[in-house]
Amino acid sequence: MGYIAVKGGKDAIENAEKYLEFQRLKGASDDLSIGQIKDQLYLAVDRIMSEGSLYAPELAALAFKQAAGDTLEASFILRAYRTTKPRVGYSLPCDTKKMKVIRRISAAFKDIPGGQILGPTSDYTLKLLDFGLEEADNAKRKAELEKLLGDIVNYKDYEDIGELPRVIDMLRKEGLVIENKRTKQEDIFDITRESNVFPASRSASLQTMARGETGGLLLLAYSNVRGYGDIHPALGELRVGYVPVMITHPLTKEPYEIGKVKITEAEIIARFNVEGEKPKFSLGYGVCFGHNEVKAISMAILDRAMATSGAKHASNDQEFVLSHVDGIESMGFTIHWKLPHYVTFLSDLDRLRKAQEVSGK
Fold first, then answer.
1. Parallel, antiparallel, or unpaired: how do β-strands 255-273 and 280-289 relate?
2. Which of 25, 58, 199, 232 has the fewest CB atoms below 10 angstroms from its CB?
3. Residue 142 falls within a domain, yes or no?
């Protein structure tokens, strides 16, 4: 594709970049620190880490500041940075049963082993503006924090809760669930090293969705449960917490913990399957970096939806879903239309004029 050169283009581009930076810096407010963004806008930071496919809270906060709050642009910046880093090894498979839980609920069962742990959530609050937040006062903030902690009786840190059993395992013991037919495979597919091929393995599907754009996953999942699909899920279990990252120690060759990452994990229970075997519930699974319940639940719904044979709707079609949920790829292709397309459009314009001339209308 050819483009028409424009004189002065370099200066115009440089000035556009300066103007963008000016838009972020202008105004009388104090400059946002990376620590403020990481601590107080942590849900945005978690979303950027998930979609940028890199667990690095400080870098995600920096990208958010640089992008002036545009989470897609920030995710793009973070993933671009990720590609510059060498790969020094692989972590071992993570057992999420060992999660240090800060939130854990089930909408399918009232009483679950270990109990329902509501944790940090706005699910049960009214969606009203809190005008008290207009006044930024560190002393007031410290006093509010002390008051919150003082009101908590028998406060326990998340590390004291201990390991909690999986809710779905209760159904497994009774033989009431069927595992996803795409679960068994010899090797884990690495979508950062190889392009997806269809039909994609389940590991490739889950990886693609784990770094997919939250809104895109939500749209497709919502379309399925709303009637453009056949999944009507019950939330078996939702967990938010910290899981250990393990590697093989280079000297001892034994598993070694190098840190913890915060994740959100969801398992949904779909209607039972009666095709050619004893009726059982089917399952869907979702997991992502950070605290992002909408994404994990949407991912679990789509995981189950794509296991449906004979796709009739977009959300059941594996190739459709996995080819469109990556927000960075979608954004990149969409915004490329802002680049010059003078030659191709002039060609279309010439053909249209010729067609009208030939038609005589």
1. antiparallel
2. 25
3. no
Encoded tokens for 80: 């671009």
H or E element: which one contains 75?
helix 71-82
Rounded to whole angstroms, the Cα distance separating 143 from 159 reads 25
Angle at 51 between CA 163 and CA 187, to 5 degrees: 65
Phi, psi angle pair for 297, to nearest 5°: -70, -45
- Which of 82, 112, 140 is the last residue in one of the domains? 82
Based on the fold, state whether residues 64 and 107 are members of the same structural domain: no
Could you tell me the CA-to-CA distances from 301 to 172, 252, 279, 291, 308 in Å, in that order?
19, 41, 20, 18, 11
The string of DSSP letters for 119-136 reads -S--TTS-----GGGGS-
- Token couple for 56: 């690095």
pLDDT above 70 (res 7): no
Average pLDDT, the chain: 87
For residues 42 and 95, what is the distance between their CA atoms, to the nearest angstrom?
A: 25
3-state secondary structure of 149: helix
Tokens of 69: 């709050």
SS3 335: helix
Q: What confidence tens digit (pLDDT) does each residue in 267-288 have?
A: 999 876 655 667 888 899 999 9
Other C-beta atoms closer than 10 Å to the C-beta of 89 total 8
Q: Are 39 and 45 in contact (CB under 8 A)?
A: no
122 domain residue, yes or no:
yes
Q: Compute the Cα dihedral for 155, 159, 164, 167 and give only its sign.
A: positive
Of residues 200, 197, 167, the one with CA closest to residue 307: 200
Residue 58's SS3 state is helix
Residues 286 and 321 in one domain: yes
Which residue in the block uniquely carries the two structure tokens 């068994």? 184
**Whats the size of the chain, residue-wise?**
361
Q: Biggest alpha carbon distance in the chain?
A: 86
What angle (nearest 5°) sits at the alpha carbon of residue 256, between those of residues 250 and 262?
130
357 C-beta neighbours (distance < 10 Å), count:
9
Give the model's confidence band at 45: pLDDT under 50 very low, under 70 low, under 90 confident, else very high. Answer: very high
Range of the domain at 123: 96-132+163-325
